[in-house]
Write a structure and sequence with these properties.
Blueprint (H helix, E strand, L loop, with lengths): L2 H10 L1 H20 L5 E9 L1 H4 L8 H5 L8 H5 L2 H13 L15 E4 L5 E8 L2 H56 L7 H49 L9 H19 L8 H27 L10 H77 L3 E3 L4 E2 L6 H29 L6 H8 L33
Antiparallel strand pairs: 1-3, 1-4, 1-5, 2-3
Helix pairs in contact: 2-12, 6-7, 7-11, 8-11, 9-10, 9-11
């Protein structure tokens, strides 16, 4: 096809291209004349390079439970719905926007600026001033929110460690009270030391028991020997070889006095003279001595037994042997009773010692854990202090409003572009309609498609239809006009 043919095709339906261009121009003009409902603003944020690759998992637990979005990096945090919702809530609280305008607020856009260490945050608003305030407010919320996100693990760990430390302190106090109760009723010190002391005492008492039994055996031998001697003296007195043995109260008092003196000498071996038992024994001895003196005086006045006629030496020695035997037996019984008393305490003290050792081991473990918890708490607090002195995100001033996208220069450019685009699309539509039209457009097209020459053309006219014959009139052949 030649150019003239293209021209004829377009000219035949030029009105289509004109209407398409007019429609595009009208759309651009209407868009320009409509009021602007969305304005943009942007601000700059400084971000530490080390923080760009950090993934924060804290703060997302509630989001996951509530089936909300999950974010980890700074970019995801800035562009999240959570920041958008918090910014909208703050903007409504400060009367920057109305509730019905909240749906028009889009999530923030976060992208790197031409400077590598700065980032641009971009947001929208119902007006230029509202957009600027919303972006400024959003930057503050982002700074505070990310700071809280960074500190959240430290705060949670600190709270958990403090609770664990308080629990550990209660455990230590409980163990100390239990150890005090175990020590109640014992001497000062550890129950194990008390068991060791008692076992040493028992060993010492066993040696004393052996010595006391030896003394009892010796005393029994002496008593037996002096009893034999007294029997021999009695036999001799019966034969008249020896005088009769002194009798009467004087002899009994002499024996009593001798017994008290021997008991006092034995008691002073392990007690002082001021001891209540020694003092009571001294009183008994003085009383017996007065009674003996009175009896001797009475005997002297009545002419009876001479005051000097007391027990015979053999009787005195036999009496002393009996007193020593009773004393040795009493000492043996006392030592055996003391040894039995101490031995009866051993099982209970052993149980207390084992319980005390278990509590002591638990206390050492608890104190070690407390020291570890305290050290961990100190490290976490140091980390929190370090976070207080550093910032991952920091706004650089306030946001600035961006120019309105609807300017007359842009309108002129868009109008020209839309008109040209309408003309091009109209021309394309004309050619499309030409291709789907199956009728002959001219004689040349008919000759080309049919392969026969066109002799003449019949113009298209509207031919009136012949009216039908009236009903009942027979249609006959037309008359022959030639004859």
């Amino acid at each position: 096809m030649e150019f003239i043919e293209y021209y004829q095709i377009i000219r035949s339906r030029i009105w289509i291209a004109v209407m398409m261009a007019a429609a595009a121009f009208t759309v651009v003009t209407v868009y320009q004349l409509l009021p602007n409902t969305s304005w943009s603003a942007e601000g700059q944020l400084g971000v530490r390079p080390e923080a760009l690759g950090v993934v924060q998992s804290s703060g997302n637990t509630a989001n996951v439970v509530q089936n909300r979005e999950f974010w980890g990096t700074i970019e995801q945090f800035v562009t999240s719905r959570d920041i958008r919702e918090r910014t909208i809530a703050a903007a409504q609280q400060q009367a920057i926007i109305e509730p019905y305008q909240a749906a028009r607020i889009k999530p923030f856009v976060f992208e790197r600026s031409k400077r590598g260490d700065l980032f641009v945050i971009r947001g929208t608003g119902p007006s230029a001033e509202a957009a600027r305030q919303i972006v400024t407010l959003g930057m503050e919320i982002i700074e505070q929110g990310w700071d809280a996100v960074r500190k959240a693990p430290c705060l949670a760990t600190t709270e958990r460690l403090k609770q664990k430390l308080a629990s550990q302190r209660q455990l230590i106090q409980s163990l100390e009270r239990q150890m005090d109760r175990v020590q109640t009723g014992t001497t000062a010190g550890r129950p194990t030391d008390r068991v060791t002391w008692i076992m040493n005492q028992i060993n010492a008492l066993q040696g004393s028991i052996a010595n006391a039994r030896t003394e009892v055996s010796i005393a029994q031998d002496r008593v037996t020997a002096w009893a034999t001697q007294l029997q021999e003296e009695e036999r001799q007195r019966a034969q008249g070889t020896l005088p009769a043995a002194p009798t009467g109260p004087v002899a009994a008092l002499e024996a009593r006095k001798l017994e008290l003196e021997l008991s006092r000498s034995q008691m002073l071996a392990h007690r002082t003279a001021d001891h209540p038992e020694v003092v009571a024994l001294d009183q008994q001895l003085r009383q017996v001595t007065r009674q003996l003196d009175q009896e001797k005086a009475k005997a002297a006045k009545s002419g009876g037994t001479s005051p000097t006629a007391v027990m015979s030496p053999s009787q005195q020695q036999a009496r002393l042997a009996e007193i020593e035997l009773r004393g040795a037996q009493r000492r043996l019984d006392a030592i055996v009773a003391e040894e039995a008393r101490l031995r009866a305490q051993v099982p209970g003290l052993l149980a207390q010692a084992r319980r005390y050792e278990d509590l002591e081991n638990e206390l050492k473990t608890a104190m070690t854990e407390r020291a570890e918890i305290t050290a961990s708490l100190r490290r976490v607090e140091d980390e929190a202090s370090r976070l207080d002195t550093t910032q991952d995100i920091y706004p650089l001033g306030e946001a600035t409003s961006l120019p309105s996208p609807k300017t007359w220069s842009k309108y002129a450019l868009m109008a020209v572009a839309a008109t040209l685009a309408g003309l091009v699309m109209g021309c394309m539509l004309i050619f499309a309609l030409h291709q789907i039209d199956l009728t002959f457009k001219n004689e040349a097209e008919a000759e080309h498609l049919l392969g026969y020459p066109v002799l003449a053309g019949i113009p298209r006219t509207d031919i009136a239809l012949v009216p039908a014959a009236p009903e009942g009139v027979a249609e006959g052949p037309e008359p022959d006009r030639g004859g």
